[in-house]
Design goal:
Number of strands of chain B: 8
Mean pLDDT of chain B: 76
Oligomer: heterodimer
Number of helices of chain A: 5
Shape of chain A: rod-shaped
Mean pLDDT of chain A: 80
Structural class of chain A: mainly alpha
CATH topology of chain A: Arc Repressor Mutant, subunit A
Largest sheet of chain A: 2 strands, antiparallel
CATH superfamily of chain B: START domain
Distance between the termini of chain B: 18 Å
Radius of gyration of chain A: 25 Å
Largest sheet of chain B: 8 strands, antiparallel
CATH class of chain A: Mainly Alpha
CATH topology of chain B: Alpha-D-Glucose-1,6-Bisphosphate, Chain A, domain 4
CATH architecture of chain B: 2-Layer Sandwich
CATH class of chain B: Alpha Beta
Strand order of the largest sheet of chain A: 1-2
Structural class of chain B: alpha+beta
Largest interface: A-B, 41 and 46 residues
CATH architecture of chain A: Orthogonal Bundle
Radius of gyration of chain B: 17 Å
Strand content of chain B: 35-45%
Chain lengths: 126, 165
């Protein structure tokens, strides 16, 4: 739990951004290097405005940023928010795994508590 | 990574883009699992008691239209709370309730359905969370964490592996 700096609206924005397959594909593409809007638009067979719309969502979620080159304005992946989002999901899973392991222990205890009653009916005591 | 061969493993799936389903098998009859889920003195012994966290409020009014209120306190006095209303209560088989965290992880409400199936003294617990995103369906920035969680569970691992290369 070393990074809990993201607020829930920020997490919402990240998860919402990741919910779209095109945007996930854009992130994967950017993982192999910075790319301009034009370069990003080509493999997706989408218009530049459509891609720009997706980029705006990704940028709003902090998942990408713009490079220095004023001409190309290349987009760059910002991996940190993604890692934080993943950490959050892992915590969610771990949270429930922890809950259910404690429930296992409690259920064993409840079952054991019931057993002596049955033994008593057979006249056996410990 | 996590072995799935273990029958007690927690399975998480996403039946639709609005739902999350968790399945877990317990080695106990379902009336005990039902009790552990619905009696405050039992629920407070397992749910949310992570290291550093303790229960502050656990109120359960187990009837249709009744409500529940949970509040935990964690490190640095950070509090996490949730509340909801029971829509269906069928002991020891099914509980349907709304639920909402005090801190909004998602837009709108979530409906939780807990189903308990018993076979040979073992209970399969199925927890289905259905998120409401009618209003925000077309508005990507407002779409709930739930849809992102689908992306999370099914794609984020793969995506992260790509990024790590």
């Amino acid at each position: 739990m070393h990074n809990t700096t993201l607020t829930s609206p920020q997490l919402d924005a990240i998860f919402a951004a990741l919910a779209d397959p095109t945007r996930r594909a854009i992130l994967s593409r950017l993982a192999s290097g910075d790319a301009s809007v034009n370069e990003l638009a080509q493999p997706f067979d989408m218009s530049q405005p459509a891609i720009s719309k997706h980029l705006k969502v990704l940028e709003g979620a902090g998942l990408i940023s713009r490079g220095q080159d004023a001409q190309r304005r290349p987009r760059r992946l910002e991996p940190k928010p993604l890692a934080v989002a993943n950490e959050w999901l892992e915590r969610y899973r771990k949270h429930w795994e922890g809950n259910y392991e404690r429930l296992d222990a409690l259920l064993e205890e409840l079952k054991t508590a019931e057993t002596p009653k049955r033994r008593n009916t057979r006249g056996k005591k410990t | 990574m996590t072995p799935t061969t273990n029958s007690r493993a927690l399975e998480i799936s996403t039946p639709s883009d609005r739902e999350i389903c968790m399945t877990r098998v317990f080695n106990a009859p379902r009336r005990l699992v039902f009790d552990a889920y619905t009696k405050p003195e039992l629920l407070t012994r397992w749910m949310g008691v992570m290291p550093g966290w303790s229960w502050v409020v656990c109120d359960i009014d187990l009837r249709v239209g009744g409500g529940f209120r949970y509040l935990w306190r964690g490190p640095d006095d950070f509090e996490m709370g949730m509340r909801g209303t029971y829509l269906e209560v069928t002991p020891p088989h099914r509980i349907v309730s709304t639920e909402q965290f005090d801190e909004k992880w998602y837009e709108g409400e979530c409906v939780e359905t807990v189903t308990l199936e018993e076979t040979d003294g073992r209970t399969t617990l199925i927890m289905l969370l259905r998120y409401d995103n009618q209003e925000v369906r077309d508005s990507v920035l407002q779409s709930p964490a739930a849809s992102g969680m689908e992306a999370g569970f099914s794609n984020l691992d793969a995506l992260l592996r790509t990024l790590e290369r």
